[in-house]
Design a protein that fits this description.
- The protein is mostly helical.
- It has eleven helices and no strands.
- The chain has a domain of about 90 residues.
- It is globular.
- The site of zinc ion (ZN) has 8 residues, from loops.
Length: about 280
């Protein structure tokens, strides 16, 4: 498959994901006509965008990141999400080729895992903007997790440490166990912090993540999520101090750590344990 074509197609899909995440309102269905219908327009002057202003990446670059009519600076989110989506389309299949060789399994799992990361991208953007994770997204993730296991997926992405932590005999039991452990741990945290540290949305996200990634990957995803969260939280407190009004949502960190463990779990964990056991 042509890598450039995959990237361009991915960027176009990313452009659509931007629309979904920017227009999403909590009381509306994620893919309702209100959200995905209607022409795109400049958020400042409301000018309806023409087709040539909607070409992923290219329009943004040619216009210098500004609206053609009012000159308002356009959010950097647009090209950033298009690039990230394009990267998923190229690198998810490329990465999975080292795990699955049977063509039917490989192609099916490539499509399913790409859909997983596109959904996680929407979760990232909506949670960042509204501190809400749409239930629809969690249901989609759970359905994709089930399909991935049905089509022979379910490999651990944490390398040799996947087997070290054991429990690889039955892939379904393993992934159900991961979902229960993740859910129980987050449920405990919510009760212990009386919901200040973490919300019900995070609990509803960790369950499909556990089902997707299995054991022990979910353990590493939670650990990496807390580490990334602590670093970003520390930075925000240093930068904004007491002006930091609302709690920072945790969903974006879980999405970031899921991407990290999926692509780099083997490398990161090998280095970590080598250093630890030195
Ligand atoms: Zn404008």
């Amino acid at each position: 498959m042509n890598i450039a074509l995959l990237f361009i197609f991915g960027a176009a899909i990313g452009s659509f994901l931007n629309v979904v995440s920017v227009r999403y309102q909590p009381d509306k269905f994620l893919f309702s006509g209100k959200i995905i219908g209607g022409r795109s327009h400049c958020p400042n002057c409301k000018k309806t965008l023409r087709w040539f202003e909607l070409v992923p990446l290219l329009s943004f670059m040619i216009q210098g990141g500004r609206c053609r009519r009012c000159g308002e600076r356009l959010s950097f989110q647009y090209p950033a999400v298009e690039i990230v989506s394009g990267i998923f389309f190229v690198f998810v299949p490329q990465y999975l080729s080292s795990y699955y060789s049977l063509p039917i399994t490989y192609y099916t799992l490539s499509v399913l895992w790409t859909l997983v990361f596109l959904t996680l991208l929407v979760v990232f953007l909506i949670d960042l903007r509204l501190s809400i994770i749409p239930d629809e997204a969690n249901i989609i993730l759970l359905a994709l997790a089930i399909l991935i296991l049905v089509f022979g997926g379910g490999a651990s992405f944490s390398g040799s440490y996947g087997t070290l932590f054991g429990f690889q005999g039955n892939v379904w039991l393993n992934h159900i166990f991961a979902a229960i452990i993740g859910g129980a741990f987050f449920g405990f945290l919510i009760l212990a912090t009386k919901g200040r540290g973490m919300g019900l949305g995070d609990l509803k996200l960790i369950i499909p993540l556990g089902f997707l990634f299995g054991w022990p990957d979910i353990l590493f995803i939670m650990a990496a999520g807390f580490i990334i969260g602590a670093i970003c939280g520390g930075y925000l407190i240093l930068a904004y101090g007491k002006k930091l009004k609302s709690a920072v949502p945790f969903g974006p960190f879980l999405v970031a750590s899921s991407v990290l463990i999926f692509f780099f779990g083997r490398t990161v964990l090998d280095n970590y344990f080598n250093w630890l056991l030195r």
